[in-house]
Amino acid sequence: MKKLGFLLFLVLALGMVSGTALAQGDGSYYFVTYYSNANTSGAPHQYVRVINDGNTGANLYASYYVFDNSQELQECCSCMVSPDGVDSEDVNTNLTANSLTRFVNVNGVIKVISSSAGDPTANKTAAGLRGFATHTQRLTPTSGAYYVTEAPLADANLAAGEQTMLQELCQFEIILGSGRGVCSCTPEDSDF
User: Fold this and answer.
1) Which listed CATH number (3.40.640.10, 3.40.50.2300, 3.40.190.10, 2.60.290.11) goes with 22-177?
2) Which residues pair with 113 in a beta bridge?
3) Pairing assessment for the beta strands 47-52 and 86-90 based on DSSP bridges
4) What pTM was estimated for this model as a whole?
5) Edge-to-edge, what's the strand order for the sheet holding 129-138?
6) pLDDT tens, residue by residue, 153-182
């Protein structure tokens, strides 16, 4: 039994020295989440918080694509996240306040691409961002207290067609919106 324990210890120690047992990032660069009860009287605000894990040592950008519950892009932008920094965006005031259609969005989907370029119309995907989102829920759809939950952004698969579509929709939105349809970025360390 002692020989087996020593052998197991030796294998683990050698694995750590060679780097195979060390934690490694998973290389994700595309994430999705949802928002609900946004811009609703009495409901707490929701936030999307994105962290740069610092692995690359470079500034990264969270390219946000905000859809309404009819699957139409309403806003897009890219917000810088410095190494080991946090970008925190309020769904009500940063991500849904300037919709292309001027419609007040209550429910929808938020997609985030981790990029080394600060242009949501021309992303250069780069792993290194991780994120979390708060969600405002109600016990029943029409009444009762609001509850806030928080969950990690869900990793998603980014097909080339999806990335192209997001970038082109954003580009059209910027051109056609004349200032509308572009979300805003909160400077790091200034909202919590």
Assistant:
1) 2.60.290.11
2) 30, 63
3) antiparallel
4) 0.85
5) 86-90, 47-52, 129-138, 146-152
6) 999 999 999 999 999 999 999 999 989 999
- Residue 32 CB: number of other CB atoms within 10 A? 16
> For 132, how many CA atoms within 13 A lie in the half-sphere containing its CB?
8
Q: Which residue in 24, 26, 30 sits closest to 114, CA to CA?
A: 30
Per residue in 17-27, pLDDT (tens digit) is 444 444 445 67
E strand map for 17-168? 30-35, 47-52, 60-68, 73-81, 86-90, 108-115, 129-138, 146-152, 154-155
Structure tokens at 47: 């936030």
Least Cα distance to 167 among 34, 60, 77, 47 occurs for 77
Residues in Cβ contact with 13 at an 8 Å cutoff, skipping those fewer than 6 apart: none
Q: Is 56 helix (H, G, I), strand (E, B) or coil?
A: coil
Give dist(CA 123, CA 75) in Å, integer. Answer: 16
CA distances from 183 to 34, 47, 108, 128 (A): 16, 14, 15, 22
The alpha helices in the chain, defined as continuous H runs, are 2-18, 160-177
The answer to whether 87 and 60 have CB atoms below 8 angstroms apart is: no
Instruction: Give first-to-last CA distance, the chain, whole Å.
Output: 54
Beta bridge partners of 35: 108
